[in-house]
C-alpha cells in the first residue's frame, strides 16, 4: 500500500496493488457462476472469475459500507431538520474511455451489489440514452463528435438523476441503440427508484458548466476505468473486428456496409480513423482530465486485467 506524498503533504489517494486489494475481500462470498459471468461480459471483454474474486468482491464490500454510512448520514440530517425518512438511491458513476470495458464493470457491479440483503434493487443506466439523436447532431454539424460532452442532452441527464435523488418513484428515459447508431424513435426505458443507481458513460465525471449542476454532483461514489491509450485503441480495434463479423452483419446495423462491402483491411482503416479522430481525441481532451475526480480508479494492463487500484480517502 502506498500513501504518496507531494511536497510533504499527504496525498488524498491510497494506491494498492492487485494482491493488497484482493485481500480486502474479507469474507464477501462469491455467488456468481461462470455462466452468469458470460452473460455480463461485453464483446471481446475477457473479464474472468479471478477478476471477480480479486477486484469486484472487495469493491462490492467497500460499496456496501459506503451505502450504509451514507444512509446513516442522510438519516442524521433528516432528524436534524425534523423531516420524515425519504428514500433516495445511492448513486454510483462509472466513467472511462470508449472500449475500456465500463459496461462490463457496471453490469458486474449491478449483479454483485444486488446480492446484499440491505440493497437488493440496483438499476443501471447508460448515458448513451441521453445522446442527442443523429438528426440533431447533423443539424448542429457535430455528427463526428458523438460521445463529446456537447453531444449529450446534459440537462435531461441531470434532471433524471436529481429527480431520482429527490425520491421520484419512477422516470422514463429515451433509448439508444448501438445497432441503429441512434436514439430509437419513441423508445422508452422506465426506471423505478432503486436502492442503488449506477450511471455508466464516458463523460459522467465532467465538471459542471458555469452556473449549472453536472450529473457527477449527484454521485455518492465514482469509478474511473483506466488503461494506457494504446491498449484501449487495440481493444477498440479488436472489438470492431469482432462486431464486423457479428453485430454489423445484421442488415439493420448502421455499419452493415462495413460487413458486406468493405474488406477487412478497409474496415480496419475506417475503425482506426474513427478511433484517432473521435474517440482518442475525446479521451485525451475530455475524459482523462476527469480521472482525478473519481473516488476509485481501476488501472488495467494490456491483458485487460486490473493491476492496481487507487482509492480516494478524503
Ligand atoms: N457499433 C456497435 N455495435 C454494437 N455494439 C456496440 C457497438 N459499439 C459498442 N458496442 C457495445 O456497447 C457497449 C458499450 O461500449 P462502449 O461505450 O465503448 O463502452 P465500454 O467498452 O467501456 O463498455 C459494449 O458492450 C460494446 O460491446
Ligand atoms: C455511444 C458512445 C458515444 C458511448 O456512449 P456512453 O454510453 O458512454 O455515453 C460510443 O460507443 C460511440 O458510439 N462513439 C462514437 C464513435 C464510434 O463510433 O466509435
TrEMBL record:
GO CC term, one of those recorded: cytoplasm
Ranges of residues in domain Phosphoribulokinase/uridine kinase: 91-237
SUPFAM superfamilies membership: P-loop containing nucleoside triphosphate hydrolases
GO MF annotation, one: pantothenate kinase activity
Statement: the UniProt record of this protein carries the keyword Kinase: yes
Subcellular localization(s) per the UniProt record: Cytoplasm
Keyword Oxidoreductase: no
InterPro entries: P-loop_NTPase, PanK, PRK/URK
Top enzyme class: transferase
Keyword terms of this UniProt record: ATP-binding, Coenzyme A biosynthesis, Cytoplasm, Kinase, Nucleotide-binding, Transferase
Protein family (similarity comment): Belongs to the prokaryotic pantothenate kinase family.
Name of the protein: Pantothenate kinase
Gene for this chain: coaA
Amino acid at each position: 500500500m502506498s500513501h504518496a506524498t507531494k511536497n510533504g503533504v499527504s496525498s488524498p489517494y491510497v494506491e494498492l496493488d492487485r494482491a493488497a486489494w484482493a485481500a480486502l475481500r474479507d469474507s464477501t462470498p462469491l455467488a456468481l457462476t461462470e455462466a452468469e459471468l458470460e452473460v455480463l461480459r461485453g464483446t471481446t471483454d475477457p473479464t474472468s472469475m479471478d477478476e471477480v474474486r480479486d477486484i469486484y468482491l472487495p469493491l462490492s464490500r467497500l460499496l456496501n459500507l459506503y451505502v450504509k454510512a451514507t444512509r446513516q448520514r442522510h438519516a442524521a440530517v433528516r432528524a436534524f431538520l425534523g423531516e420524515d425518512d425519504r428514500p433516495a438511491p445511492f448513486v454510483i458513476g462509472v466513467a472511462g474511455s470508449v472500449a475500456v470495458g465500463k459496461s462490463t464493470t457496471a453490469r458486474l457491479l449491478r449483479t454483485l451489489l444486488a446480492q446484499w440483503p440491505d440493497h437488493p434493487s440496483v438499476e443501471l443506466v447508460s448515458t448513451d440514452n441521453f445522446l442527442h439523436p443523429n438528426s440533431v447532431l447533423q443539424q448542429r454539424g457535430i455528427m463526428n463528435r458523438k460521445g463529446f460532452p456537447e453531444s449529450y442532452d446534459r440537462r435531461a441527464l441531470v434532471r433524471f438523476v436529481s429527480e431520482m435523488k429527490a425520491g421520484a418513484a419512477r422516470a422514463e428515459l429515451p433509448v439508444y441503440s448501438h445497432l441503429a447508431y441512434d436514439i430509437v424513435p419513441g423508445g422508452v426505458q422506465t426506471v423505478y427508484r432503486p436502492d442503488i443507481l449506477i450511471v455508466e458513460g464516458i463523460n459522467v465525471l465532467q465538471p459542471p458548466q458555469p452556473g449549472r449542476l453536472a450529473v457527477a454532483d449527484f454521485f455518492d461514489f465514482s469509478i474511473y476505468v483506466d488503461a494506457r491509450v494504446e491498449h484501449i485503441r487495440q481493444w477498440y480495434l479488436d472489438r470492431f473486428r469482432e462486431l464486423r463479423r457479428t453485430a454489423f452483419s445484421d442488415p439493420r446495423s448502421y455499419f452493415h456496409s462495413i460487413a458486406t462491402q468493405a474488406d477487412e483491411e478497409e474496415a480496419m482503416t475506417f475503425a482506426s480513423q474513427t478511433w484517432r479522430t473521435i474517440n482518442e481525441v475525446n479521451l485525451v481532451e475530455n475524459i482523462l482530465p476527469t480521472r482525478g475526480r473519481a473516488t476509485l480508479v481501476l488501472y488495467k494492463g494490456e491483458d485487460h486485467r486490473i493491476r492496481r487500484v487507487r482509492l480516494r480517502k478524503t
